[in-house]
């Protein structure tokens, strides 16, 4: 028997059937629990022994609760598949985050998002494959800032949570193409942090301006700003770390907000120093509030290297500066329209040139009725070569003609009024 389904063969579902609330999708709680939420029987966990209650110092205003381990593990079980995310160095709203993640991740299934506090969000995916993709597919970036992705843990508290490490893309500019080998690049990256992978464009050698490697770095330690390869120093650039200080190499503040002094150790070879220091004096601080000799991890300044030409480990090159596309578009538009503005005065002057020439011909025609002084002035106006002068005389001529037309109209109106007045004075018998 062949079964045919019709849209009107069944009554509509009541709100709440099949996990739907009034036609809307499932809630975050239902995603976590794996099904529609059901009302639970309220239990007294203290009397059951699942929770304990104590008072700090015997004061009832300071209650202390403790959940026994079996009950706590049961509560945590549904949440172990959730992820905690946060944008490093930037806060955005819930709707913006949700819409951007849809575009960024391109998942096979759906996901549910909930905002917690302090810029943290929790995510639960429908498919385990999507969870694996988000965890292993990074580093993800939104608004040129890194998206921190962490598995949820029972110890996570948004108010006390700190981001101490992240995946970043680092660049090695001016590196020779001969070194675009995966093993070589990952070995170099191991001195910066934990090497993760090499960018495909670098492996395929489709771009040669810089090599790009993904590295996991510590945010509570100064970053590596240079490395030496076969006797040549190369810079290390970091993408998306906008709060990276160019003076000390630490994340969390920028150069103009950095001001501190660091005690230096007693030097054994003063002749090798750019600025001689004695005893336990502090290092030199320049007028911008930065150290003249940056201290390295081993406690030695850059000027204390065995070679006198060793570079500073940190500088303005640390953070990759991306161009603002909107500003570039405006700048390009202004350049394209600039010639039109420069040509505008000549264009206006050329339009008035015909009026000026007509004015000159009219003045020559009416020269028999005007005095020689006026005729001389008109010839001088026509002979002028300045576009501004021609435009000014043309505008003056136009204003003069307009005034004359107004006077003629006023005269015609007054004459018509006099005629009407005279008609009213004629006796009726004379008509």
UniProtKB/TrEMBL annotation:
Species name: Cajanus cajan
Entries under PANTHER family matching the protein: CCHC-TYPE DOMAIN-CONTAINING PROTEIN, GLYCINE-RICH CELL WALL STRUCTURAL PROTEIN 1.8-LIKE
InterPro entries: At4g02000-like, DUF4283
Protein name as catalogued: DUF4283 domain-containing protein
Transmembrane spans: none
Pfam families given in the database record: DUF4283
The DUF4283 domain, residue ranges: 79-158
Compositional bias segments (type: Basic and acidic residues): 363-378
Residue span of region Disordered: 1-36, 363-384
């Amino acid at each position: 028997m062949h079964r045919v389904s019709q849209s009107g063969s069944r009554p509509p579902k009541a709100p709440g059937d099949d996990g739907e609330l009034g036609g809307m999708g499932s809630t975050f709680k239902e995603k976590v629990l794996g099904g529609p939420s059901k009302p639970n029987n309220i239990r007294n966990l203290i009397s059951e022994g699942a929770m304990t209650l104590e008072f700090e110092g015997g004061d009832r205003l300071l209650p202390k609760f403790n959940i026994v381990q079996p009950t706590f593990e049961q509560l945590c079980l549904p949440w172990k598949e959730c992820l905690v995310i946060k944008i490093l160095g930037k806060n955005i709203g819930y709707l913006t985050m949700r819409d951007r993640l849809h575009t960024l991740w391109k998942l096979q299934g759906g996901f549910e998002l909930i905002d917690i506090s302090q810029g943290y969000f929790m995510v639960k995916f429908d498919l385990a494959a999507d969870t694996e993709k988000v965890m292993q597919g990074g580093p993800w970036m939104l608004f040129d800032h890194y998206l921190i992705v962490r598995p949820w843990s029972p110890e996570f508290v948004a108010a006390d949570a700190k981001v101490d490490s992240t995946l970043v893309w680092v660049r090695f500019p001016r590196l020779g193409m001969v070194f675009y080998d995966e093993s070589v690049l990952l070995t170099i990256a191991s001195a910066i942090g934990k090497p993760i992978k090499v960018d495909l464009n670098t492996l395929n050698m489709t771009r040669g301006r810089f090599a790009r490697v993904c590295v996991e770095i510590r945010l509570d330690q100064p970053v590596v700003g240079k490395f030496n390869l076969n006797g040549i120093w190369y810079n290390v650039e970091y993408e998306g770390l906008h709060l990276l200080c160019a003076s000390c190499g630490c994340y969390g503040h920028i150069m103009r907000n950095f001001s501190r002094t660091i005690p230096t150790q007693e030097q054994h070879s003063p002749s090798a120093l750019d600025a001689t220091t004695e005893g336990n004096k502090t290092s030199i601080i320049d007028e911008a509030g930065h150290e003249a000799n940056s201290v390295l991890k081993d406690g030695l300044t850059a000027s204390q290297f065995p070679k006198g030409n060793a570079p500073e480990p940190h500088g303005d090159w640390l953070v990759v500066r991306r161009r603002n596309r909107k500003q570039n578009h405006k700048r390009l538009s202004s350049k394209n329209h600039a010639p039109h503005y420069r040509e505008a005065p000549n264009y206006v002057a050329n339009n008035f040139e015909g009026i000026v020439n007509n004015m000159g011909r009219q003045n020559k025609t009416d020269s028999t009725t005007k005095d020689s002084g006026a005729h001389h002035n008109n010839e001088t106006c026509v002979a002028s070569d300045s576009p501004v002068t021609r435009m000014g005389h043309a505008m003056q001529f136009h204003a003069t003609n307009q005034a004359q037309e107004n006077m003629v109209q006023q005269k015609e109106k007054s004459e018509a009024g006099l005629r009407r007045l005279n008609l009213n004075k004629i006796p009726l018998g004379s008509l």
